[in-house]
Design goal:
SH3 type barrels; Serine Threonine Protein Phosphatase 5, Tetratricopeptide repeat; 60% helix; 3 domains; 5-stranded antiparallel sheet; alpha+beta
Length: 270
């Protein structure tokens, strides 16, 4: 296990250097430098077997979080680096959250997908998705294969080509049926996939349990009034869909379809 973490730390040192690109030179740049320094120190301490390495990784994660807030840039590399540091510090919840945010920005990144899969496996809780969640996953399967820009270009190009073909048919009194069908099909398919993605991602807010102690799950919005929904709290890193907010509590649905109320401070929105 130590060897595995050492290899991960060595690889991630390069990731941190690459991740700084594209961020405005401001307070964010200072935070990034401090994050890189803390991460490098943590990697060196870990290689020597120093248990204090986790605190350095946690410090790096905190600086990366500040860099993201200060820059205002939607950059998947920053979230990826934050997730890496959080993961190595032992904060699985924050790692899953950061990786999911990176995945929204760069769904085709193999590094993001692999990191998210590793973090999910570290949660230690297996929740078999219900039919609703499996359907969502199926409808969004294209995100890891087809760039959004290509779909947008397909819609614009297909739409324009359709009207060009239709206009030429009016002029020459013989519209090309194949060109009309293909262009219309490409345009409709492209815009449909984009709208489906937007609808699914915004139909119910995604959240992640980030409290190190887990999230207390109740049958209603109150600790002293409602009984526990499950026999144990929700583990850090468990992914949920936020359905309702009331009096500082969130009604959430787990991937397997079960619902519960959790304190709002224990779950953070993606």
């Amino acid at each position: 296990m130590n060897t595995r973490l050492t290899l991960i730390a060595a690889v991630l040192c390069w990731v941190f250097c690459a991740g700084a690109s594209g961020v405005p030179m401001s307070d964010a740049a200072s935070y990034i430098e401090r994050a890189e320094a803390a991460f490098a120190e943590g990697a060196a301490m870990h290689a020597e077997g120093d248990r204090g390495a986790r605190s350095r990784f946690a410090e790096a994660a905190a600086f990366y979080e500040r860099a993201i807030e200060a820059s205002g840039v939607r950059n998947h590399r920053l979230h990826l680096n934050l997730g890496n540091a959080a993961m190595l510090s032992g904060d699985v919840g924050r790692a899953v959250l950061a990786y999911k945010r990176a995945d929204r920005l760069a769904p085709r990144s193999s590094r993001v997908r692999e990191s998210l899969a590793f973090a999910r496996a570290s949660v230690g809780v297996e929740l078999r998705p219900d039919a609703r969640e499996r359907g969502r996953s199926l409808l969004l399967a294209w995100r890891g294969l087809v760039p959004r820009q290509l779909l947008l270009a397909g819609f614009i190009g297909g739409y324009a080509l359709f009207w060009i073909a239709l206009a030429s048919g009016v002029i020459w009194r013989k519209p090309p049926p194949v060109l009309l069908g293909v262009s219309a099909g490409v345009a409709v398919l492209s815009i449909t996939l984009l709208l489906v993605e937007r609808s699914i991602l915004h139909s119910a807010e995604e959240g992640v349990v980030v409290s190190p102690a887990g999230a207390d799950a109740r049958l209603g919005p109150g600790e002293g009034v409602y009984a526990p929904a499950f026999d144990r709290p929700l583990s850090p890193g468990v992914e949920v869909r936020i359905l309702e907010s009331r009096d500082g509590w969130l009604r959430v649905r787990l991937p397997d379809g079960r619902e519960a109320w959790t304190p709002g401070t224990a779950v953070e929105r993606v």
